[in-house]
Structures are given as C-alpha cells and as structure tokens.
Amino acid sequence: MKIQVAIDLLSTAEALQLAGKVAPYVDIIELGTPLIKAEGLSVITAIKQAHPDKTVFADMKTMDAGELEADIAFAAGADLVSILGAADNSTIAGAVKAATERGKGIVVDLIGIADKPARAREVAALGVQFVEFHAGLDEQAQPGYDLDVLLSAGTASQVPFSVAGGVSISTIANVQKSGAQVAVAGGAIYSAADPAQAAKELQAALV
Ligand SMILES: O=C(CO)[C@H](O)[C@H](O)COP(=O)(O)O
C-alpha cells in the first residue's frame, strides 16, 4: 500500500516546507483543494519541481469541464488529478481523455456519494486510475463518524481504491487490511508536532 500525504495548508511556502520534511516517507504528495484555491496552479509546479521523483496529486475536486480542468493541472505538473464522483460521466470521461493524452491519471473522489461501491464500479469502467473512498473534513467532524464504514465500502467495491477520512497511526493497519492501494493522511501528518516522524511511523506500520 502506498502513502499519500494530503497537504491542506494554505501557502506554497508552507507546502514546500512540509513536503521537504515528509517526502522520504511518502509515495504521493497531494496538494489539497484549499491550497490550490489559495495559491493557484503554480503550487503544483513548485512541488513537482522540488520533488520530481514523487507522484504529485492535484486535489482539484473538479465537477464540470473535466477535460479542461484536468489538462491545466497536468500542464502545471500534476501526475494525478481528482474529479468528483458526483460529476456527470462525460466530465469524468473528458478528464480521462486528458490524462491518456498526457500519460497521467485520474482519481475519482466519492465524497458525498451515498452508494459508494456502486458508483466506484461505474467510474472504474470509465478508465480512472483509482477511486477515492473519502469522508471529508466536515463529515469526519460529525458525531458517530466511523472510518470502518468507509473501509468496508472500499473492500466491497472490488475496484482499485484509496481511503481518505482521518487516516492515522491507529487506523492505518485496518486501511491496509481493507485492500486499499493508497492510504491518504492529511491532519495526521501536517498537524503532528513532528510531521516527518508521523509520516515515518505511518510507513513503518505497513506490513
Ligand atoms: O481532501 C480532503 C478534504 O476534502 C483531505 O485532504 C482528506 O480528507 C485527507 O485529510 P485528513 O487525513 O485530514 O482527513
């Protein structure tokens, strides 16, 4: 299983600093949606230039104009771009077209989707690289939030998937057992007193 650090900070300087600390322990560096909105596509270029050996994930959360939005993120240096699972299939297909032309990949984010396994199977058939089983920050903050529900849905989908939704050192073993290809960790790394140590411990917890 790969580890993806989600950088939900708000400046390129902070993102570069964090990425510099944790890069040795992660496979994928994600530029979070708030970061891209705050800094623009230039943050993607800055991170890719600093870490050309890492997969750079632009969390665009695109809902429309899939081909155009994916293409501008790829042109800026992204290797993977997220499109929302709630988008029309034509939006996802357009993004996959842009990815294919550039030799890159699309990840569909199932945030807000009720029947995640069913939608995962539909979008997998459109040629996406993997599907993200995702409970967003607001959903995680609600009482009764349970990551295991997300993990069970991922396993049931029988398609290549990642998991995002409060993944931490106490849950990463269960994420791996679920069969996920990628564990996404944001706050567990960027809010840690020592982000490099936190990322190192997540990596060391993998079997
Ligand atoms: O995409 C996101 C929010 O929409 C986050 O990056 C994702 O949820 C991972 O962060 P955390 O591990 O803190 O939940």
Automatic annotation (TrEMBL):
Identify the enzyme class: lyase
EC identifiers of the protein = 4.1.2.43
* Keywords from the named record: Carbohydrate metabolism, Lyase
Question: Which Pfam families does the entry link to?
Answer: OMPdecase
Name the SUPFAM superfamilies on file.
Ribulose-phoshate binding barrel
What NCBIfam families does the annotation carry? RuMP_HxlA (TIGR03128)
Q: What is this protein called?
A: 3-hexulose-6-phosphate synthase
